[in-house]
Design goal:
The chain folds into two domains: about 250 residues, TIM Barrel, CATH 3.20.20; about 70 residues, Arc Repressor Mutant, subunit A, CATH 1.10.10. With about 375 residues, the chain is α/β, with parallel strands linked by helices. The strands form three sheets. The protein has a nine-stranded mixed sheet, with helices on both faces. Strands 10-11-12 form a three-stranded antiparallel sheet, with no helix packed on it. The mean pLDDT is about 95. The radius of gyration is 21 Å and the shape is globular. It has 15 helices and 15 strands. The structure holds iron/sulfur cluster (SF4).
Length: about 375
């Protein structure tokens, strides 16, 4: 199985925290779409016949595209890559872009999953984050999606924003769960260099949330989602039974994927490629039949370390049998030995032949993952 990702690198403006590659000049939209369609044909053999189980249109802001343009991208994917019978097809949307009829069009072309970039229900916080929508637009957009019959609906929230309290997060969660959403991605704010928040931090105008508050927020998040019947299947992701994101899970399970578009990454288990993060250069290169990508061959140690880091983030954990079969006994024993003290401290548990983080372990997951990395 494999996944296909299409990156739409356009935004109306930049959010204060975001370091994804996108541009605000929409004049290249048409040329970019043609280039994406061409890249799909140039890369048609990349997945070596493995069927695509998931197609994900992300960004940037995919909802800036007219539905017929989105449909032409999906057609290009279907023409160039074999898909399973019922692929998961996700489109990321921003609430301020949605017109009447938008979701109906997506449904007709086979889109079966919507991911809403809501981030918060508090208008003041939305403005601080540099978002362009408000809570009224979020409510309207969600209503339109459910009215159209979408069941697989995900909401993105951000917590740990400076000034935000645990009660604020509780309120955001309550307002989200007032809708029949089936998936939640909740990310703690990280202040990245090169963003508006990064510059504010350097100038001493932004103080990050203290650790105690962050830990309380993470605990609240887990508890509320559990009460709502959601499965905590990855550090930042929660889903109702049957609605775990197949696309995101494939990244964590090291399933091959292909990324089309500027800055998109591809992975075929042996190497990783990443396209140039420049819309103009991308369009020009694809126009002359070249894929503007850099490539890194992945050695055994790198693939193993990536496996440890990604699988430990999930409820499935590290599969020790997989390690022994796909790597070797030495790495298997290395993990078993090292995990011993985390198990004693209650940060990790061994369930059958897997190593899984406990709720306490999830709070310091980055530290644990760093210590498990090896240069064996
Ligand atoms: S968060 Fe989304 S909408 Fe905001 S700048 Fe980044 S990609 Fe664009």
């Amino acid at each position: 199985m494999a996944g296909v990702y299409i990156h739409i690198p356009f935004c109306k403006s930049f959010c204060s925290y975001c370091d994804f590659y996108s541009i605000t000049d929409n004049s290249l939209k048409e040329a970019l779409v043609q280039a994406l369609i061409r890249e799909a044909s140039l890369r048609a053999s990349y997945l070596e016949g493995e069927p695509a189980e998931t197609i994900y249109i992300g960004g940037g802001t995919p909802s800036l595209l007219d539905p017929d343009v989105t449909e032409s991208l999906l057609l290009a994917v279907r023409e160039n890559f074999r898909a399973v019978d019922n692929p998961e097809i996700t489109v990321e949307v921003n609430p301020d872009d949605i017109s009447e009829g938008y979701f109906g069009s997506l449904k007709q072309m086979g889109v079966n999953r919507i991911s809403f970039g809501l981030q918060s229900w508090n208008d003041k916080r939305l403005r601080y984050l540099g978002r362009r929508h408000d809570a009224v637009q979020s409510a309207r957009a969600l209503d339109l999606a459910f009215r159209e019959g979408f069941e697989n609906v995900s909401v993105d929230l951000i917590f740990g924003v400076p000034g935000m309290t645990v009660a604020d997060l509780k309120s955001d969660l309550e307002k989200t769960f007032a809708y029949p959403v089936t998936h939640l991605s909740a990310y703690h704010l990280t202040v990245e260099e090169g963003t508006k928040f990064g510059r504010m931090k350097k100038q001493g105008k932004l103080t990050e949330t203290d650790e105690e508050t962050s830990v309380s927020m993470f605990a609240l998040l887990g508890n509320v989602c559990r009460e709502q019947g959601f499965i905590h299947y990855e550090i930042s992701n929660f889903a109702k039974e049957g609605f775990i994101s197949r696309h995101n899970s494939s990244y964590w399970k090291q399933v091959p994927y292909i990324g089309l578009g500027p800055s998109a990454h591809s992975f075929d288990r042996r190497s990783r490629q990443w396209n140039v993060s420049d819309v103009k250069k991308y369009i020009k290169a694809i126009g002359s039949g070249e894929i503007p990508a850099r490539r890194e061959e992945l050695d055994r140690r790198t693939v193993f370390n990536e496996y440890v880091m990604t699988s430990l983030r999930t409820m499935w954990g590290i599969d020790l049998q997989h390690v022994e079969e796909h790597y070797d006994k030495e790495l298997h024993d290395y993990l078993v030995n090292l995990s011993g003290r985390y198990i004693r401290y209650g940060l990790m548990k061994r369930k059958r032949n897997t190593l899984i983080l406990t709720d306490q372990g999830k709070m310091i997951s980055d530290n644990i993952m760093r210590e498990l990395l090896t240069d064996l």
